[in-house]
Write a structure and sequence with these properties.
CATH class: Mainly Beta
CATH superfamily: YVTN repeat-like/Quinoprotein amine dehydrogenase
Number of helices: 0
CATH architecture: 7 Propeller
Low-confidence stretches: 1-23
Order of helices and strands: EEEEEEEEEEEEEEEEEE
CATH topology: Methylamine Dehydrogenase, Chain H
Length: 211
């Protein structure tokens, strides 16, 4: 498989064992589509079901792109100086900060931050959402928190200390490791690693699983 640099964003529509039905010609971890990144320093990635949102951690900007062709629809300022993980939930784009540990709920239509709270740890790099719960990856642990105020519902160790980003496919949590270039399928209740597949490129950072 051809590797990518960190400036190339693999929008990973993967054929994933146990989580998604496999086409006859597909194997677990096969890349079904990829797009050029809209920026040089991509961090978090999320979708509202129509567009993809990609954060640039160095420029503190968020790019809204068309997933069909990768064209940038618009660009706006991130609500924090070092955006990392992104998750779209409850009609808001959630952004976590890799330096301060702040978590922000952004109305993407108005640009207004409608809610904010501190993550359980600073250096929060990964966000995911499922069924009214936010998952936050920070300093080697994955926390389940209430999106209203950050109340901790539980936590477990990430598969590796070098894990940085999260995604949720509706059943399982996915965690990317930028050192080992691996993706871990994790039970969101227990933290047990169910499967490991090779990332589609080097330094696996942004992670999104969706239709």
């Amino acid at each position: 498989m051809k590797t990518t640099t960190p400036s190339v964003l693999s929008i990973v529509f993967l054929a994933v064992a146990l989580a998604l039905p496999l086409a006859a010609e597909a194997a677990p971890g096969d890349v079904k589509a990829s797009l050029a990144a809209p920026c040089k320093y991509p961090a978090g990635m999320a979708s509202d079901g129509k567009h993809l949102f990609v954060a640039d951690w160095r420029e503190a900007k968020i790019f809204q792109i068309n997933p069909a062709d990768g064209k940038v629809v618009r660009t706006f300022e991130a609500p924090t100086l070092k955006p990392a993980g992104l998750a779209f939930a409850e009609d808001r784009l959630w952004v976590c900060d890799d330096h301060t540990g702040g978590v922000y709920a952004l109305n993407v239509e108005t640009g207004v931050v409608e809610n904010t709270f501190e993550a359980p740890q600073k250096r929060a790099t990964g966000l995911a959402h499922d069924d009214g719960v936010l998952f936050i990856l920070a300093k080697g642990k994955i926390y389940r928190v209430m999106p209203e105020d950050g109340t901790i519902l539980g936590y477990f160790d990430a598969p590796e200390r070098s894990c940085r980003h999260l995604a949720h496919d509706g059943k399982y949590l996915w965690v990317s490791d930028r050192i080992k270039d691996e993706l871990y399928m994790v039970d969101p209740e227990t933290g047990k690693v169910i499967a490991i597949i090779k990332a589609p490129g080097r330094m696996a950072l942004p992670l999104f699983l969706g239709p």
